[in-house]
Protein 1
Amino acid sequence: MTLDRAPGDDSVGRGFRPGSRRRNRIAAGVAIAAVAVGGNVLLYSSLNDSTEVVQFVSNISAGDLIGSDDVRVIEIDGDPGTANLVTADQIGSVVNRYARTFIPSGSLASVYLVQADPLVSPGSAVVAIAPTDRLVPTGLTERSRVRLVIGDDGATLVDARVVSVGDDDGDGVETLSVEVAEGDAPSVAAAGDLSVILLDPEVDPATEGAG
């Protein structure tokens, strides 16, 4: 059986042919899909981008001079600027500078962890103390501003800045190193009865600014 076709009727045997308006919509859809795929490729490429940053490989005590053996360069993913990390080309801003606070091994170097000048300012001295009964206020940390009360009658008061907080015997009892005026250092070092008062931190001259 054959189909009769009118002259010039060639609709049978041909594939689907969308109208011009539909073809334009399809083309637009393909273009949008291509842009989306390209955007995803760029996104995943950026996630895989790595940056070389500086990492500490030694425990650094507050006030220590940082040497080249204390740091190394590693690669990380992400933007180092969001955490103010030190990139490999800025390693000179860390080496031969002083630690502002205790820095554990493995920490990534930040511009806020170091400074150009020694932690102990001119005219000051650092003294190790053991408060009476090894008691220290809650919240006391390195660079806390404190007032030392010396003697049973509390007649002598000395303002100080905590340089480091230690635990010599592993039982959670604290010992401190504090920065005091050089003239107060002998009496603080010799004090047999000493209590610590935690004060408002105010502005720490050793850590003000980026160093």
Protein 2
Amino acid sequence: MKFSSFTRLGLALSILLVATCAFAAPPTGGYHLIKKIQLAAAPGGGEYFDYITVDGNGLRVYLPHGTEVVVLNADDYSVVGTIGGFQRCHGVALVEKLGKGFITDGDAQKVVVFDLKSLKITGEIRANQPTDSLIYEPATKRIFTFNGPNKNSTVIDPVKETVIQNIDLGGEVEYPALDGKGMVYDNSQGTNEVVEIDARAMTVRARWPVAPEGQPVAMAMDSKNRRLFSAGRGPQFLVMMDADNGKVIQSFPISAGVDANVFEPSTGMLFVSTREGMIHIFHEDSPNMLSEVETVKTEYGAKTMGVDPKTHNLFLTTSDFNPAAAPTEKQPHPLPTAKPGNFRVLIYGR
């Protein structure tokens, strides 16, 4: 069968139009609870949970839980093991090339080192700071912890397992993000700014306001398109920022008590989880355009989150809670407190 040049041109344009529409079409939602896993109480009582880490291969999920870190198999959700002996642990960073993991123990003011295969503790690094979140920066091959009350970051050599220096950040800091090329970004909750840190020089290079967002705590980054996603608790907004000049490009209202932003490069999806029990889901349609996909109701307290890069499933943790105490002058807005022995994992997928 022969086609005229006009027919061939028309077919080519039709194919191009279909492909373009398919690429531009917003993704569908449909995230829902696919599994709930009840876990044992942490040794020593009490109830506390914080930053969730999923390894880069989607094999294991690390769940800080008070005095221990619970490690799950990401596929069948079984407990692989626990890493214990903490006063209060917060975050986990993995350095697979070294076969090491690093865990912040804020109350003990240290970072604990463990073996990725055996999960056995192999050492500790005395930070003398209330270590909270942490991240491994691949360009400099350094660990950066973020020490909220002390308003600084501790830089660690993961090979020698020693502190290099502390960086004064000027405000109470929260969870960081990085571009993989030597720049680290963190929210400064106390000053309503994003702080840009030169990981090589170990100095602050820039500070950018996050308005209309306030009290920024959650951070993620699209390193390819140089976009930062910062979310705050008061005013409750998510903002998309240019990582080169700090310009706020877009903003969206969110629910109360945000604690985690996760960006998935393979799908362009951005997930924002809050204490109120919501996952706000967005899609990066272009470097200058986020679109709202859906908001998923979870459970109260499920504010920490990690994503499995293999299955795209979301992992969140929460507990049951006691009613909030009566307001006082020192604590005018008290929050409900978690009940011991009710720690659980919520897994959402499509």
